[in-house]
Amino acid sequence: MLGFVFLLALIAWCGGFLWFLLNTYSPSVPPPHADGIVVLTGGEDRLATAFEMLDEGRADQLLISGVPAAVTLRDVERSAHLSRPPVDSHVTLGHRAQTTLGNADETAGWVAAHHIHSLIVVTAGYHMPRALLELSRAMPEVELFPMRVQPAAIYDGSRPHVWRLLLAEYTKWLLAEARFARIARLLQGAHQG
What we know:
Rossmann fold, five-stranded parallel β-sheet, alpha/beta, about 50% helix
């Protein structure tokens, strides 16, 4: 009986990982227009994509969540290799987030302050399932549109580090589904208090 339960759990885990891979590599089609864009920092391609979408008029406001405290908008523009800078009033740098859960909380505050009802989410494909999960929990009333940005290396399945990254992100997504990060945060706050 125990062997059967293990086999079912293994099949469920493998099926979930297959879904995760399909989701990771699915192409994104941005909506014609949304109220805002949030880009979760972590790669210059993400920034360039978000700025390009803002320039195309796909949204009126952009939040860059998870920016180190000392980094300015001009620093971000240089790292994204922009040919022309955006209007400062359309871009907000979020300096508080250090995790995906922090990104969700930071974005929820920004969304409320800017009265945003639809949001394009820009992050890596492998990070998107967890990002959408945490964002939707923090802002259940906001319509989210995924815009996956794929680093070139993610397509090289012959490299062990690519599979390690995908398995790690799948595991983090499973833990997020179980609300592990929020529980850990509550426990940490109770311990410090």
